[in-house]
Amino acid sequence: MNDAWLSTFRCPKSHLPLVREGDLLTCPHAGTSYPIVNGIPRLAGETYVASFGRQWNRYDVARDEEDESVFQVKTGLAAESLRGLKVLDAGCGGGRYSLLAAKHGAHVLGVDLSDAVEKAAAICAPYPEATIVQADLLNLPLEDDAFDVAFSIGVMHHSPDPRRAFAEVARRVKPGGHLAVWLYRKNTAPQEWLNSALRALTTRLPARVLEPLCVAMGGVGSLPGLNRTLNKVANFSNHPDWTLRVCDNFDWYAPKYQSHHTIDELKSWFVEEGYIDLVALPPMRTGRVYDWAYDHNLVIGSGVNVAGTRRR
Ligand SMILES: C[S@@+](CC[C@H](N)C(=O)[O-])C[C@H]1O[C@@H](n2cnc3c(N)ncnc32)[C@H](O)[C@@H]1O
Question: What structural domains does the chain harbor?
Answer without folding.
Answer: 3-185+259-310 (3.40.50.150), 204-253 (no CATH)
